[in-house]
Amino acid sequence: MALHRGVGGDMSLAIDEAVEVLFVEAYLPFASLYSEECGVVGEGAYRVVLDPIDGSDNLTASFPYYGVSMALQYDQETIAAMVVNYVDGSYFLRQKGGVLLRGNLHHDRLEGVFPNPWAKVGLFEKASLHTDVIGKLIKSALKFRSPGAVALSLAYAYDVRYVLFIGQKRPFDVDAGLFLVDALPRYEDENTIIVAQTQECVDRIKSIVFEDR
């Protein structure tokens, strides 16, 4: 697959660009797009912040965890967002002032999303770049997985114990996911996101991340 560096800084695959073209053709009559691959396309008060394939490396490795992330903005304020899991067709949807809904592309039903009281595992995106934090989480018995698709992991925040991301916060990666789970406790700074089902869990992970920093 051909490679070149997209606006977001990552190497883009031909499939990234092909999927992006489909979204541009679908949305450009109604809104401009701000995409990881080609930057800003079009103009107007409405804009879709887009990652056409969230988890491209997973796709190329045939690892079943990748999707699309879309945040609809009006005058730079997010008013709706949707994250779709391409693998099983499930998606998460929320409008401003509304609750988080879950559906599936294979049927027409929508249902509310609620915290999973039995969640034991968190999601730590970009974990391999932060081995010091890995050790602290393990020592604190905070289990985690690092699946490699930031928007999808944020969208699944209600299903897991916590979501931790440390790295460069690009709009394509985080805008839609954060909007979806806006009701959950969180901590956020320039390069850290912690979302959890309880404030106690957020505070605990924050103390671990920033210990000795």
What does this structure look like?
The structure is a single chain. The protein is α+β, with helices and mostly antiparallel strands and 213 residues long. It folds into two domains: 3-112, Fructose-1,6-Bisphosphatase, Chain A, domain 1, CATH 3.30.540; 122-209, D-Maltodextrin-Binding Protein, domain 2 (3-Layer(aba) Sandwich). It has six helices and 15 strands. The chain has helices at residues 14-27, 56-60, 131-139, 150-155, 171-180, 199-209; strands at 3-5, 11-13, 32-35, 39-41, 46-54, 67-74, 77-85, 90-95, 101-104, 110-112, 122-125, 144-145, 162-166, 186-188, 192-196. The protein has an eight-stranded mixed sheet with strand order 4-3-5-6-7-8-9-10. Strands 12-11-13-15-14 form a five-stranded mixed sheet. Strands 1-2 form a two-stranded antiparallel ribbon. Helix 3 (131-139) links the parallel strand 11 and strand 12.
What order do the helices and strands come in, and which of them pair?
Elements lengths: L2 E3 L5 E3 H14 L4 E4 L3 E3 L4 E9 L1 H5 L6 E8 L2 E9 L4 E6 L5 E4 L5 E3 L9 E4 L5 H9 L4 E2 L4 H6 L6 E5 L4 H10 L5 E3 L3 E5 L2 H11 L4
Parallel strand pairs: 3-5, 11-12, 11-13
Antiparallel strand pairs: 1-2, 3-4, 5-6, 6-7, 7-8, 8-9, 9-10, 13-15, 14-15
